[in-house]
Design a protein that fits this description.
Length: about 280
């Protein structure tokens, strides 16, 4: 099995296809194994790389604390160890936060950002958000990963026909290391990129499920602040869009990435496409 040591962490990864590198960054409590539909769709045109972030999957699970900046630096070091000078980033939820952080910290390396059900900050400003955060932490610490997984999967996949996705999700969630999960969860709380969003110059695709945890208006607002961004709404989709609506997600990703020509010039700007 392929591993790379980055920042003294043993990171598991898989690589398929050939072409310009595309790194897929999973969300909290997930792993590299939750991108099967996207790997299948992208590998004929790109070198598709999935990895387990620190604290997840088969990668190292050191004691905390963790931070988004730390996780982003793991990815930066991982890419350097792999000999990747530039790459496209696709990130969901926490992975989207890490992608934003990399675009700020390592702009020459990031060719494009595809952000799925995520954003450039998670500030617990309201009591409602604070309560949701502490509810999740309390359930995890008191009841464990399997019960937490059941709670989360019911929200992610609420339809009767999504029973198999719910069951698979519960089993994957139960396999998480509780301490590492809590450390990663705490890393996202009150995180924010430290620069104005218009400083991020690379092309950005913002994907949001119409039933995601955060409203479409939130993504439309920060999309407008980016220098070169496009918003696409995934219909009939919750927070786990790559799994509940893979065809829509794949088409949006392929359309976006296809806009690069052989010289890596982006063929069109989409500043007016954030509504």
């Amino acid at each position: 099995m392929p591993f790379i040591t980055a920042n003294q962490q043993r990171l598991y990864y898989e690589m398929q296809g050939s072409g310009e590198p595309v790194l897929l960054l999973h969300g909290l409590g997930s792993s590299s194994q939750d991108w099967p539909h996207q790997v299948s769709a992208l590998q004929s045109d790109f070198q598709v790389i999935t990895l387990d972030l620190r604290g997840h999957g088969q990668s190292s699970k050191p004691p905390g604390p963790y931070s988004i900046k730390m996780l982003a630096d793991d990815v930066r070091c991982f890419a350097k160890q792999l000999g990747l000078h530039q790459y496209h980033l696709i990130g969901i939820s926490m992975g989207g936060m890490i992608a934003f952080q990399l675009a700020v910290d390592q702009p020459p390396q990031v060719l494009s950002l595809s952000i799925i059900n995520s954003g450039p900050h998670l500030i617990a400003r309201s009591w409602k958000i604070r309560c949701l955060i502490y509810q999740r932490l309390l359930i995890t610490q008191l009841l464990g990963m399997r019960i937490t997984g059941k709670f989360i999967m019911q929200k992610l996949f609420p339809k009767p026909e999504q029973h198999a996705l719910r069951q698979q999700g519960v089993e994957k969630w139960a396999a998480n290391d509780k301490a590492a999960y809590v450390n990663a969860f705490k890393a996202i709380i009150n995180w924010s990129v430290a620069v104005p969003l218009n400083n991020i110059k690379c092309p950005c695709l913002i994907l949001t499920g119409d039933r995601d945890y955060t409203p479409i208006s939130y993504k439309a607002d920060y999309c407008q602040q980016l220098a070169n961004a496009k918003l696409v709404v995934i219909e009939d989709s919750g927070h786990a869009s790559p799994l509940d609506q893979p065809a829509q997600v794949n088409q949006a990703l392929l359309d976006f990435l296809d806009q690069y020509d052989a010289t890596r010039n982006y063929k069109s700007t989409a500043k007016n496409a954030c509504t």
